[in-house]
């Protein structure tokens, strides 16, 4: 699922120039991938999808049969996901929840609150008492757990194990769990512990983190039913064929659940579920040489697909040659073997991929960037320079939904 699937390729080649750039999602490929992930996990591990990776309603819906629920991190995500996949379990996490967001979540009957601080716990307790009297609200305490030196070294984005605004320090988390357990907050039900310490970890690193979190949670001396060990499963943009080892990870989690039969384990990946099902397709507008290097300027850019700029990588891509040329002027074409693919923005940061082997690349050829299904459109600065927005295509068998 790195080169465009045949369905994506056909759609990209069938679109008129004016309908590019476009995001094209292969929902059949997404379902197949999610089914493989689900099958690799033990039954007693719940899979939640972190909606922040890609909250398009079609994506949320396609994942429905393979996930037990969705993790949301703001009032906006909460309202959106509740509408897109009504009735599905939601876990509400994220720092800086406002009283209005907490009230909305209570009224909506959110299944799990991930509490990020002592202050938030007290706010939630009071709002639960007044907004949903008589109901016990299920809470997981998010802990920022120090892990063994180097355990997060492979991470592209560490959110824990060091000073961050996320979760409670272990000593405060212990206090919070004990206060929940001793009845200080009768309106709150202590379900367990949550930790999301880093993004971009390989399977064995993830397992080590999961073991640390479970061992910490089960050592608290308070009976807890659930441990959510977060998301952050690696997606390798430099070697897209290297995939997260879901089988190895699932086997490790199976050993962990066998050792703790009283616990439900939960994970909440985003990127590694949806990155592979999305492509950003565009066309080459111009090809030029600058101080000895060749650049192809494509329609669109990092205001649509910010991922390579934020992560500092070259977005994997394929060229789809287009032989027809409708204009009376000659086509611009590359003279060398490698080009830098840049967007239309007036900033040198608007680069999607460097050193792309594309001998003879011409204006009018199409380029399809892969691994664009997560943290792509929704993290981009769309309005900079006021270029038109891309189109969105969700490919699914025509019989789907009949
Ligand atoms: C609390 C939490 N859970 C899950 C995720 C999903 O992480 P990823 O998309 O790397 O799997 C994030 C990402 O920031 C997060 O903050």
Automatic annotation (TrEMBL):
- Orn/DAP/Arg decarboxylase 2 N-terminal domain span: 30-275
Cofactor(s) this protein requires: pyridoxal 5'-phosphate
Q: Which Pfam families match?
A: Orn_Arg_deC_N, Orn_DAP_Arg_deC
Q: Which GO terms describe its molecular function?
A: diaminopimelate decarboxylase activity
Against InterPro entries, the record matches this protein to: Ala_racemase/Decarboxylase_C, De-COase2_C, De-COase2_N, Orn/DAP/Arg_de-COase, PLP-binding_barrel
The record's keywords, sorted A to Z, are: Pyridoxal phosphate
What residues make up the catalytic site?
346 (proton donor)
The record places domain Orn/DAP/Arg decarboxylase 2 C-terminal at 23-373
Q: Which domain of life is it from?
A: Bacteria
UniProt cross-references to Gene3D superfamilies, sorted A to Z:
Alanine racemase, Lyase, Ornithine Decarboxylase, Chain A, domain 1
A GO BP entry is: lysine biosynthetic process via diaminopimelate
- Protein family (similarity comment): Belongs to the Orn/Lys/Arg decarboxylase class-II family.
Tell me what this protein is called: Type III PLP-dependent enzyme
Origin organism is Streptomyces guryensis
